[in-house]
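Researcher: I'm preparing a figure for a lab meeting and need a structural model of a single chain. I don't have an experimental structure, so a prediction will have to do for now. The sequence is pasted below. Please return the structure as tokens so I can convert it later.
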Amino acid sequence: MKILIVEDSLVYAKTLKTHLEKYLLHTHCDIASSFEELKKIDESYDLYVCDLNLPDSRGEHIEYLINKGLDVILMTSNENFDLSDKVRNGILDYVIKDDISSIEYLVNFVKRLIKNPYINILIAEDSSTIRHHEKKILQKLKFNVFEAKNGKEALEVFKNNEIDILITDLEMPNMDGLSLIKEVRKTKKMVELPIVVVSSVNEKKLFLRSLKAGANDYIQKPFEKEELILRVNNLVDLYDNYKKVREKLVTDSLTGVYNRYYLENVLEKLFNNYDKKSIAMLDIDYFKKLNDTYGHQFGDEVLAHFARTIKENMRKSDIIVRYGGEEFLIFMPNTSKKEALIALLKVVKALAPVKNVKFTFSAGIADEGESLAEMIKIADNRLYKAKEAGRNRIVIE
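Model: Understood. Here is the structure written out token by token.
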């Protein structure tokens, strides 16, 4: 990201530059100290961090940038500053220059801007004026925004898109906000999908009902632009942290595939969602011998390489789990065991040596079984048959 800092205090400008470049990956900052210097710059930037007052400008440089449709964050040391509606609506945000916390806020805000294109927000609001106002604010922050005029439309959007945050009004036709929240919470926990209620209803009981139904936060209409920005950014940060923790919890650190925790807490629920499915149990042949001959570090490289080869040759919908040691499980939805065999043969063909050392694997596949545990047991028995029959083979009967 390229950032231009427009600031007449060279000391403060260099402090901003140091922090932004230190804490933001692939970021380069340049400095301009006056409006005149700004106008002479032909180079374009992704973001402009500007002091409100310069020696030759009392905010005219801000309007100059906004008129060009550029992204501006305003910095000011005056807490009682006054902005025109055009400037207030045109900037991304403002930061009061007081101590190091303001610089930390700026860095975190820019970090959020970089991540926001990967976040999908759904606005459920029957008023087109308010809906478009909220959409404009959020799109300026680089979020992907979806719209719905009522709760029923919102549920349709959920069916066809991966939504990360829901912002909903309470009073809507067809399906109101409370009903929508309750419906969403049947499948998404509070930490999995933050919900913000934005309502003009000034009743504490309704506010409490929405929180009890599963809302994470509540904004009273009419609201300040900054309030929406702060509340949404804070929730997205919490959501990101949850995803990081969850990923660590369910991911095997060595191979990058899912672990036993995922198998026991998530896959069991997914299993029942499909009428047709297969499970394959894979085991690296003579892995102990590889470890004893070449060392445990080499064994780790073999495990990581094997997992990577599986991932590269299976579908995105297939779920790969490190079952234990050198044994892996693959859950294949909407797949018969004969179709699963074809998929595993691709892995056989793609499996390359590690440091010129060749290795193979054995596998058992099952599409029979009423439960996850039963299907795993059948596949595991067939893996045992493959081992007994001489290894380096796949058994489906």
